[in-house]
Protein: DUF1329 domain-containing protein
Amino acid sequence: MHIKKYDTNYSRRHFLESVSKGVFAAGVLSPLWPLIAKAGDIAGAYPEELTNIEAYTKGKIKVGDIITADNVEHVKDLLDPIQYTQVSEMGRRIRIVKTTTDVTKMFPHEYLEATLRNEGQATFDPDGNVVTKEGKRWIGGNPFPNPKTAAEVTANLTLSWGRHDQSLYGIRDWEIGPDGSEQYQYDFVWAEMNTAGLVNSPEGSYLSGEAHQDKIRHQAVWFNHPNDVKGTSFLNTWYYDQRKLPDLYGYLPAFKRVRRFPTNQRFEPLLPGMTFFLSDAWSTGDPMLTWGNYKIVKRGPHLGAVSGNFETGNENWEPGTHGGPKDQTFFDINMELCPDVVVIEAEPIGYPRAPVGKKHIYVDARNSMYIGYNTFDRRGNIWKSFEPSYSPYEKSSERVMDGSHVAWSWRTVMSHDIQTNRMTRFVQAKSIRGGYKSAYNTGPEMYEKYLTIQAIRRLGR
Structure:
């Protein structure tokens, strides 16, 4: 009989030990990041049981299978509690695809290059903000490509949400009620532009201009459909200092004016029917230091929608739907076995009236991007999930380019309030009503077009 040295029990012991110490280093058989830096491949860092779903489940699940209520017990430990309920009780289905070992398929090209180039140059200042060893604002890529603490993992998520210098997302959104029917449908644009940590700019790592010197990003969202909300827009201006709340302005067409909103009220839906809050964005929709008590609470393999999800879309990049009472509650998405996922817990220390008691962020160690996000109410009961999918934007019939490389970005989000059974689901579409198209690294002119008070007033008209 052949006895494997590195079986699932070995990996489980390895992960439990790292959680008990409160620190971790990605990889089991060897450190992960040196392998990525050398060849971009992670296969040598993990045993087969963590990169092959068939090996992990001892043949019960294989690539190409569909996870349903009939077989979900075989992967229950690879799902978060809300995902398990969705599959076991609500008719959700998940298609399994091959684990990605080529990490170049999990980043925008320039962002990965900056991560490799700037490795070892990041640290925290006495206030808890990320700076270079010279005390300057961050210069690009993940500041901690091989994070060892919960704070380092969270910093990788916070400093550059979409991992492009500029992103313009044309979004189609559907609000699904408890009875499974579509209650609202919105088209909106989400724009974000980093001012520091730039990776694709001829100006270098920082955007020039006085308006940007103490900032990390400008972000705006405006609605184009239906007519009763058309022109509604919000502008978030983020300071580099993660102790400071962003400036939040909104334009409301009914009043024909811009007003300033209380920026600490970040736990309310943007529009009727939505379960999506500003706080939810990218699992780090609030400044990092307005949350606290960061700690690692779990580590191990997990299912994540990180590849093969451009193939599920139609000509406008919209995936099909299924499940729920009327077969339209969930998007059709693909998931793979992610070999090393760390779960970060944090509490909203800067928001005394926040309805959220804590959050859990599921982060893929291969690229330090979140693949799942759960919030809990003040009583400790699980409340919402905010589940993204990602993909290189390439399939047999279409290839979307970001400069000279295939684009990589998020594809879909499903925000499920499990307590009221309301689902917000939205997709990054090719185009939406109003003539907007999704695009990346469009240039610093985005600031004047979309990311000022004058811009959101103009967009509202």
